[in-house]
Description:
By secondary structure, the chain is of the alpha/beta class. The protein has helices at residues 10-19, 24-38, 50-63, 106-113, 156-163, 181-186, 220-230, 273-288, 299-304, 317-327, 334-344, 348-368, 386-391, 393-400, 439-453, 459-472; strands at residues 44-47, 76-80, 117-122, 169-171, 189-192, 215-217, 257-262, 291-296, 374-378, 412-421, 427-435.
Amino acid sequence: MDISKLGFDIEALHDGYRTGLFSPADIVREAFRRIHARGEDYVWTALVSEQAAIEEARRLETEFQGKSLPPLYGVPFSVKDNIDVAGMPTTCGCAGFDRQPEVSAMSVAKALDAGAILIGKNTLDQFATGLNGTRTMGGHCCSVFDEQYVSGGSSSGSGVAVAAGLAAFSLGTDTGGSGRVPAAMNNIVGVKPTLGLVSGSGLVYNNRYFDCVPVFARTVEDGYRVLEVIRGCDESDSFSREDADLIPLQKAMQDDFVFAIPFKAQLKFFGDALAEAAYWQAVEAMKEIGGRCIEIDFAIFVEAGRLPFDSGLLAERAVSYGDVVQSRPETVHPAVAAMIKKGLSYTGTDTIQAIYQMTELRKKAKRLLSEVDVLVTPTVGRAYKCDELKENAIEFNNNIGYYTYPISPLDLCALAVPASVRPDGIPFGISLVAPAGNDGVLNAIGVRYQKHAGLKPGIDQKIMNEAAYAGAGAGAGVVRAQ
């Protein structure tokens, strides 16, 4: 079998292992071949040595020969570089930040215990501050569909690693959309779990009220398969949910369901007509799979979206990495430094008032969504080019977060899923949003929607489009899934 064309879907990998078509060691070699073939794409801050990864694959082969396979057996994965991996430095994308963990984050440890094979650590917007992927001190990732466009951030390398077929899944972090925006910009799935469902131990925090560990994957099924492995109550994490082992990740859904969209006047696409058209196509697709649409007032979401980056809660940024700004300012990206300094300008009273506001808004959002199964929004209202973000870093970054910023302040779970590829070749995605504990509802509707959309994951869809274009001839126009 030619594994150079193999998609790293978990079930496909396991089928190949069971039938002897290939081994975990073969897949590790293929993952590194793909990484080397891409060259310097700024996806990685560090790689595990290829030989060490192959040895781990062989250890797994020996241990489980003739036995039932653990859920992530032989599955290559990567980790955002603000999550600890024992024996590898945690850099947060900053040369002045020095963390040498001896213990892996709980989420990483659980993935490894389930048979996954670590390939490396991924680049990020420095200190996970930014939704575009360009806030780095060196080179940065780009969308796998067009290098002029942002990859999305802050989990930029984590999203691109999966979209480019270098890893089957990756673990990121999400404060205001970092586990969803890279999914949308690269045509993959981003699972943002209920807060506290996955342990936050071993993370460099931005805000412990909002931070969580999302999963990037090729399919909705794979995303929740990984989430099932890494979730669970962690007594060492004071923000871990006591019922984290009990929340169902599978949900039997009736054929019909109710989904909400914001009032039309509250939808923003920031001048991107193609994104607007793609969203309304996605709304029609939701109806085609059994959804009944209603409109709701998005004002609560807009208000909540200001809390992570425009309230006293921003002061927490200084807890994890404020010292670096003071001691080694030359290593900190200017936009990141400005964000930290802004956080330090808030008073304790400002922070308490923000907590009160967040608590009130969470109750209002729960009531607002009580009559629907999911809220459906664009994941990103406009696809921005890298140069645009570099010229207007603050305003355009906030535009990217218009739909994603509110989700954690309102204690909601979300699923970013591919919807279409626009006529200009840029992917468009939607987000399904539900109250905390409704992860299983997102899974059920997301699986149904992704199958209906019929897109290949990540860069595979681009390759298919290009092949169709070449086969039809340049004068025939580009053939794209819509």
